[in-house]
Design brief:
globular, 3 helices, five-stranded mixed β-sheet, three-stranded antiparallel β-sheet, alpha+beta
């Protein structure tokens, strides 16, 4: 038995639970107000289902936008399925929560980022783990606060 508590994995599990809860609410009630999501996921992750032409176009990762048009959003324990419009062609997708790399709702400046051990090796991270947001008058666009748990990993 390990003598350490794996806070990084515990936080990732909790953050994926948050995404599941949000998507379940959207599935039941639709997107409220100006809320919309940018979801980046690993297209190579086991369990990801997407059309061959999308996998060829996005061999490593893909970002989808849930905003104006989507249908058939079904939220499960391990992932969610959704149909999105790609150039007037509806395409069904299945995305396991484990495949999600980022989840951002720019309407409220909220975001989550899931880092893997490989990502840690490729980049150095500062002590400050969130992006500071200047006042709206000083910015032409909104950035999202990003939660990163790299400092909590072994």
């Amino acid at each position: 038995m390990s003598q350490d508590i794996d806070y990084g994995n515990l936080m990732h599990t909790a953050m994926r639970g948050l995404i599941k809860t949000v998507l379940t609410d959207v599935s039941n009630n639709g997107l409220p107000g100006a809320h919309h999501f940018f979801i980046t996921f690993d297209t190579q992750q086991e369990g990801v289902e997407l059309a061959d032409w999308l996998r060829e176009r996005y061999p490593e990762e893909m970002t989808i936008v849930m905003q104006h048009w989507f249908e058939n959003l079904e939220v499960g324990d391990d992932g969610f399925s959704i149909t999105l419009n790609f150039g007037d062609a509806p395409e069904p997708l299945y995305i396991p929560y484990m495949a999600i790399k980022t989840f951002v709702d720019p309407s409220v400046e909220f975001g989550l980022r899931f880092e893997s051990a490989e990502d840690e090796d490729e980049a150095e991270f500062s002590e400050e783990e969130t992006i500071e947001i200047d006042s709206e008058e000083e910015k032409h666009h909104h950035d999202a606060d990003v939660v990163s748990l790299d400092n909590f990993r072994k």
